[in-house]
Amino acid sequence: MDELALRFLFGGAAVALSYVISVLAPWKELGGIFAAFPAVMAVAVMMTGRKDGSKTAAQIAEGAVYGMLGCAVCVFSTFTMMRVFHTWWPSIGVGLLCWYLSAILVFKLVERLRTSLDQSGRRRAQ
Fold it and tell me: What does pTM read for this prediction?
């Protein structure tokens, strides 16, 4: 099966399942829990691992850590905006912007920390 089709199938099934659960569940928060299912990450790691090996799949998984930390920021900022302004569409827009900026910030901080640790390790070795 084509990689894009497989990603679409898994991702779409996860989204559809989370919607069905949110409609049928007596607790709407349960639908929210399933809305956070990491379908895209799981499929990306699986497909990359199959195609390019575990080392590259680990890099994808590492990037997903940054994105998922950004998801926590997104959810918190969207939830806060919804509580303050009581309107969903600008709240989601602010949340998505916060997701992107926070994920990039964490990535850059980790990159800077690694560079710093590499340089201090080299100094000790000399």
Answer: 0.76
